[in-house]
Amino acid sequence: MTDVAGKTSAVDTGLISLVKKYTCGAPPMVCTPTVGQVALYTQPDFQGNCQVLDLGEYADLASQPTVQDDQTSSVQLGSGVSLILYSDTNFWRHVGTVPERDNDLSDNPIGAQTVSSVKVVNMITPPSVPVLILPAAATFGDRT
Questions:
Q1: Are residues 138 and 71 in contact, defined by beta-carbon separation less than 8 angstroms?
Q2: Cβ contacts of residue 91 below 8 Å, gap of 6+?
Q3: Number of domains composing the chain
Q4: Predicted TM-score of the model (pTM)
């Protein structure tokens, strides 16, 4: 028997079957928020367990099946929504509003794994940057 590199084997081994046996863990959860939804994740960078929430008020995240009270570390937002975060249940202690996705809440005022209730609301548009308009220069006739 000769292989593609031109090496010859004196022993004809015939067909060798290989069977790989292993157990895989559950695949990671995939949460992709669409229009009017947000996704909460238990780990930074949109990792760990995740929970998709629709527009609405969630007074106690402990009642959610996947990401519960004090477990949120990152958030993704679908289009058209903002997320209001509270550190206590029943919308006490408003700590921040997230207008777009945030891969790590630890650098926000609320911090990571401290969210207890949330409101998913229609997008809050921040006010535009103010522009200073000065009065036109006054003209007092010809000074020649």
A1: no
A2: 57, 59, 117, 119
A3: 1
A4: 0.70
